[in-house]
Design goal:
about 180 residues; two-stranded antiparallel ribbon; mainly alpha
Length: about 180
């Protein structure tokens, strides 16, 4: 949110700096509701809260958890979940439950949610990238900026808990696969 505030301070609004887009990925649905803004969704009169297109909730329903547990326990090497069983610890499988309030500091849970929600993550990232295309050069020139060719993607996350630490590398590899010519930082 600090970066969004900085853009508003320097350029007057997020719309005047169209070459930067955000995607927040989280297993905690509450964190996607701008909880880290502390009720201050406006900065200098501009709404800096995340838009729906910038939020990706990668939780798991109780039904999904039961389906996963049953598929992995009965696996004979012929289910779509078999690759998950190779790296997902048994204690996570045995205790699989609905995930809506975070990964509980368990990296494997964050990684599991990444795999189960990969399509939504991919859609959000490509949507953000597409929205930067065709930006108006006059907006950049107005502030004395020159837009270079190409794409820079910055991945920022906490490596302390479960969601960020469990998804960080997989997000980076996915972005690298989606955009082989982009600079990923």
């Amino acid at each position: 949110m600090r970066l969004r505030r900085l853009i508003v301070e320097r350029y007057g609004s997020l719309d005047k700096f169209p070459i930067v887009r955000f995607v927040q990925i989280n297993t905690d649905s509450g964190a996607l509701d701008n909880a880290n803004l502390g009720g201050k969704t406006f900065h200098r009169g501009v709404d800096i809260s995340l838009k729906e297109s910038e939020k990706v909730h990668i939780g798991m329903t109780a039904e999904d958890a039961n389906k996963l547990r049953n598929a992995l326990k009965k696996s004979q090497g012929n289910t779509p979940y078999d690759f998950i069983g190779e790296w997902l610890p048994d204690y996570v499988i045995d205790n699989a439950r609905a995930i809506d309030k975070g990964a509980g500091g368990i990296r494997a849970v964050g990684r599991l949610c990444f795999f189960l929600n990969y399509a939504a993550i991919q859609r959000a990232i490509t949507g953000a990238e597409i929205s930067t295309q065709g930006t108006h050069p006059h907006l950049m020139q107005e502030f004395g900026l020159i837009q270079d060719e190409g794409l820079d993607i910055f991945i920022v996350g906490s490596l302390y808990g479960g969601t960020g630490s469990g998804t960080f590398l997989d997000v980076a590899y996915s972005v690298r696969k989606l955009y082989p010519n982009a600079k990923v930082h």
